[in-house]
Specification:
By secondary structure, the chain is α/β, with parallel strands linked by helices. It folds into two domains: 258 residues, Rossmann fold; 186 residues, Glycogen Phosphorylase B (Rossmann fold, 3-Layer(aba) Sandwich), CATH 3.40.50.2000. 38% of the residues lie in helices and 16% in strands. It is built from 18 helices and 18 strands. α10 crosses α13 and α14 packs across α17. The longest helix has 24 residues. It starts with 13 loop residues before the first helix and ends in an 11-residue tail after the last helix.
């Protein structure tokens, strides 16, 4: 695995959860899983990491060699090994996706270095993997290296799998990035890494990978269209035969209401009595009125346009005026959304609350104590929060997009069917109406609400099924790589869409 983040070491978004949980699942099945990621400033004092005793890692960038220190540690709770690449010029910054200067412009060099360092580390260790699993644009140049500079060297035999977590972020950088990276000038073409005169790292990864996955079957279909493809839809359609949607799972050791240490009282699908204590604790933590019989809706999310939470800001006053509900928001992001939620909380004290920031304990308490989760995403490749909420007996209210379609079964009144509520139109009215539907179910059909809870809590959101699929994908990728070498073709330019 090569990734910019991994739980529990460093996390910005769901990518980190996927890399950590999948690595645990695969290593638990006997696979030799090794993870390469940067040693950011935040990881300076990390416990259990020891430097490799061998000589410093030599990283062969374009026209020069760089030296890095490598730290080794087990991925907590698994047999997988993490290698942390330490280089102060590239990774001693304040944030994962900003360089030491604090600028995103640094990322072309920073993540070129990560891709090259991962390859050179394999040579350094004398360990040749069967498959290199790359995650999102920060690792997009790695498959390009294997198809060009490494094609006649041992690492060139490795198959590559590129997982697309979010097409909105592609890693576009100036043309001279290829010179820094040490890639051939011939790679700067429209059927490789060039896009509108720039280097597009994600495009390169898609073109050059043996197989491509994304994080839900529905999202795999959506990204082949103009809205979801973010400019790369024609390329993804061209590679559709190699594109597989695999729904993410959740780490059920970390997210389990029966054992969660962050909850004041644990509970199960067979005994929900502990959830009442969680609700009371949540209301107290957010400064809400302690009202056991009022439905409590939670938001645990980045506050960005993708998540559609401006819809809640738009109709929040109307919601408070027309329904007997409570809302608690946990997240940070767009200043306008932060201010919108703080203003709603000020206008409706005791009923609407906003914690601007992130607190892991409060995140667990928010799904454990709430009655519903709000997730009106404009697009959502997979999403994990809706799975957490179902596991914790809080049916989610979601827009019907991406992985939300694949993971949330629509409630059908009177049938006992469903795990949550879905709506189609990304409008404040559609969102408001669906909250109303959920509210009426809670008040007027308590037995059906209880069935929704039970359905979600007993659904299988483990990584077992997804790990099965990934094992198959790795096998297909290895077969494709072997066949390419046997035929002595398939490495160079192809007749593909521009």
């Amino acid at each position: 695995m090569v990734a910019p983040e991994v739980v529990p070491l460093v996390k910005v978004g769901g990518l980190a959860d996927v890399v950590g949980a999948l690595s645990k699942a695969l290593s638990g099945r006997g696979h030799d899983v090794r993870i390469v990621l940067p040693k950011y400033r935040a990881l300076r004092e990390i416990e259990n990491a020891t430097p490799l005793e061998s000589a410093p890692l030599i990283v062969h960038m374009g026209g020069h060699e760089a030296y890095a220190r490598v730290w080794e540690m087990p991925l907590p709770g698994s047999k997988a090994i993490c290698y942390l690449i330490e280089h102060n010029l590239y990774f001693d910054g304040p944030e994962v996706y900003c360089g030491p200067s604090g600028e995103e412009a640094d990322n072309g060099q920073r993540f070129s270095f990560l891709s090259r360092a991962a390859i050179d580390l394999c040579y350094h260790l004398n360990w040749m993997p069967d498959v290199v699993h790359c995650h999102d644009w920060p690792t997009g140049l790695l498959p390009v290296y294997l198809n060009t500079t490494e094609v006649d060297r041992p690492m060139g035999r490795a198959a590559t799998v590129m997982t697309l977590h979010n097409m909105q972020h592609q890693g576009n950088f100036p043309r001279d990035t290829i010179h820094f990276a040490g890639l051939p000038e011939s790679t700067f073409r429209s059927d490789s890494i060039e896009s509108f005169g720039q280097v597009n790292m994600l495009k390169g990864g898609i073109y050059h990978s043996s197989k491509i996955t994304t994080v839900s079957p529905t999202y795999a279909r959506e990204i082949q269209g103009s809205e979801g493809g973010c400019g790369l839809q024609h390329l993804l359609h061209f590679r559709a035969a190699d594109l597989i949607g695999v729904i993410n799972g959740i780490d059920e050791l970390e997210w389990n209401p029966a054992t969660d240490p962050h909850l004041p009282k644990c509970y199960t699908a067979d005994d929900l009595t502990g959830k009442s204590a969680c609700k009371a604790a949540m209301q107290k933590a957010y400064g809400l009125n302690e009202a056991a019989g009022v439905p409590l809706f939670s938001v645990v999310s980045r506050l960005v346009d993708q998540k559609g939470l401006d819809l809640l800001v738009t109709m929040g006053d109307r919601l408070m005026e027309t329904m007997d509900v409570q809302v608690a928001v946990l997240g940070t992001g767009d200043p306008a959304l932060e201010e919108g939620f703080k203003a709603l909380a000020a206008r409706h004290p005791g009923r609407f609350a906003a914690y601007i920031g992130f607190d892991n304990r409060l995140a667990h308490l928010s799904v454990g104590g709430s009655d519903f989760l709000l997730m009106p995403s404009r697009f959502e490749p997979c999403g994990l929060s809706q799975m957490y909420s179902m596991k914790y007996g809080a049916p989610p209210i979601v827009r019907a997009t991406g992985g939300l379609v694949d993971s949330v079964e629509q409630y059908v009144e009177g049938s006992g069917i469903g795990t949550g509520f879905r709506f189609d139109a990304s409008t404040a009215q559609a969102f408001y109406d669906t909250i109303g539907w959920a509210c009426s179910t809670y008040y007027d059909r308590p037995e059906e609400y209880a069935q929704l809870q039970a359905n979600g809590m007993t659904a299988d959101f483990s990584w077992d099924q997804s790990a099965d699929t990934y094992e198959s994908v790795y096998g297909w990728a290895m077969d494709a790589r072997r066949n390419a070498y046997a035929a002595k073709s398939g490495i160079g330019a192809v007749d593909a869409p521009q």
